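To: structure desk
From: M.T.
Subject: fold request, one chain
Message: Could you run this one when you get a chance? Sequence is below, nothing fancy, just the single chain.
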Amino acid sequence: MNRDETFSPLFTDLYELTMMLAYGENHLAAKATFSLYIRGSEWLNRGFFVAAGLEDALYGLERMRFSPTDMDYLQSLNLFPEEFIRSLSEFRFTGDVWAMPEGTICFADEPLMEVTAPIAEAQLVETFLINTLGFQTNIATKALRCMHAAKGRPLVDFSLRRAQGLDAGMQVARSAYIAGFTGTSNVLAGKKYGIPVSGTMAHSFVLALGGDVEAFQAYARSFPGNCIFLIDTHDVFEGARSAVNVALNMAKEGHLLKGVRIDSGEMVETSKMIRGILDEAGLGQVQIIATSGFDEFEIDKALSGGAAIDAFGVGTKLGVSADTPYLDMVYKLARFDDRDVRKTSPGKITLAGEKQVFRKTDRTGRYVADILGTRNETIDETEPLLIKVMENGLLILAPPALQELRERIRTGFSNLDDGYKHLDHSDKYPIRLSRRLSEIQ
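Reply: Done. Structure tokens follow.
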């Protein structure tokens, strides 16, 4: 999101605007509180989540403005009275926002954010907030699961070419980086966020140069201090031997081959054999990097099989969160005009009232349980997770640097027991309601 420009409120579903009009015509202007959370369900294969996207969400709220062209477009729909459309020129989001800090380890069914504003304003921003927090939380969670599976090996985001649009590609790079990835192939994300960029060569380079040796020699001449050779365009073992020959010649000139990359085929035995070829030539420092269809499941499978892989490029399955491509994130009215309200639809019952999430930890800081309570209560020996981040439509806290978010996630994840980190069938983290919240009807 461009921090220097206004943000169009037309990034919303039509019914948010029609309700906005109807609220006004029915003289409903009191303040409302909406609660945003991930609705839990049996199919949701996640033992934890990483709250992400808050910075973009808050900047969007602060910069929401209807432009003249926005209003012209709404006029062309012939749905809205002219007086309503004219009034939009004065629109500003004036609400208060409570949220979990970005990078917080969190769980289904507990609020990541609560928004309090005049009801038309609070309603209008629903779609934007679900879209922004939902996608980035999903990707950051997927990325952290990959990090856990990699057991300390470096991971690089290679998802850009199959990410679902420019915005998604940028958000994936950022979300993966705060979760612990060492870099991204996305050069624009490198410029915008300061993320280290990483890349090697494509099969087309090898084919264009006429073969492995020719391609490796040419690349070494251009990048003698940063060479990673792609060795599986044809026969991967012949490619490895060609890489060895070129690497030995590079060494005579004082340059070291950084790594070789495998992008296809069976990874476990192949990587072991390539490790043997490299080690036999005295190239034990040369890394083996694997980049073919990896996510947390494939990383775990390869390493459990003893693969000699030093680093992974993680692409498509990260960028679209292939095993769980969406979160059932919802935004539900919890209080209106000094009345606590709740939805009672079968299977979609909500909790009433303004809420707080209280986290209980043991003496070492490890997470024991979360308690959902009311906004204004205090629960001894717990930490409240929702903090006030916006007041009267203005940011009241500066966004943290990405390095701070990386450390917050690393520390938080280390405080989570391993049972909640399982890739399949993880334990269910204990969450209960406080007595005060459970008594609200």
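Reply (cont.): The chain has a mean pLDDT of 96. Let me know if you need anything else for the meeting.
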